[in-house]
Design goal:
binds flavin mononucleotide, 323 residues, 2 domains, alpha/beta, globular, TIM Barrel
Length: 323
Amino acid sequence: MEGLFGKYRVLLAPMAGVSDIAFRFLCREAGADMAFTEMVSAKGLSFANEKTRHLLVLADGERQVAVQLFGHEPAVMASQAAWIEQEMGEGLAYLDINMGCPARKIVSKGDGSALMKEPELAASIVSAVKGAVAHPVTVKFRRGWAEGDETAPVFARLMEEAGADAVTVHGRYAEQLYRGSADWGVIGRVREAVAVPVVGNGDIRCGADAVAMAAQTGCDAVMIARGAEGNPWLFSQVQAALAGAPEPAPPAVGERIAMARRHAELLTHREGRNIVRMRKHAMWYMAGLPGAAAARGRINYCTTLADFNQVFDDLLAIAQEHS
Ligand SMILES: Cc1cc2nc3c(=O)[nH]c(=O)nc-3n(C[C@H](O)[C@H](O)[C@H](O)COP(=O)(O)O)c2cc1C
């Protein structure tokens, strides 16, 4: 593990609607070396810098964050990257460009993974952003667009030639969405294709997965998304496993509920739409606990911190009865 990621080996992925200051805080505390913001629309920023400023706020204790931008217009991407750099100063670790999102509302506008079908345009975005900022610029993409057509190694080389300082590869095709399993072989093939650091991403659910991905692919860092949902402890497990130490035991029920409470509390401090976001996190924290099925219906009506805490109190009481 060297270069840009020398000290950032275990990364929290950009996750729209999830990787806000509350979730980042808990994942950093659990051991994530670096975290990404939710993807930020360059076009949206260009219309409303002031309104979107809150997306760039750092979590408590977070010295730096990596900001992910999406868009397909080189000039807009470059000008907004420059604005972010100026706005955030030392708080910005690096800028990442989203070329992997497969959501219809994103690709239909030519953004996200649609850029894998337009490698020349993708390269011109990277060189425009690189020319506009002093910070490192990284690119996140998938195995390819169409299922069976693995373009990532060639695409990675193009991004490197355009100036990318590192690349992240998620081992699924865009057309695959989240179906099937991630192919880690492509991460190794990208590793061989470029000289810049390569971040491996896809299906890390435990410390052993991270160790296996690193061993099989030679990647310089690993990135985790869904495995951390309701489970920030995954970062401490991955850190321990990568260091060759025994993985900490999974959290007990009481710890899971305590973490959910802290998460809800942190979300009350977030600007904009806030605590309603806790509904999905609460479902993730309590997955598999006794009483979770009944609590699910109630969670959909929670609108305040007190509402969530009531559900958590009841879940804890049920868990104590069971133990
Ligand atoms: C809810 C959710 C939101 C996501 N949002 C983004 C995003 O904003 N930008 C991005 O590059 N990838 C996004 N992703 C993809 C993840 O960063 C990651 O590449 C993918 O989930 C595979 O990693 P995993 O198997 O660890 O989940 C998102 C994934 C999920 C599940």
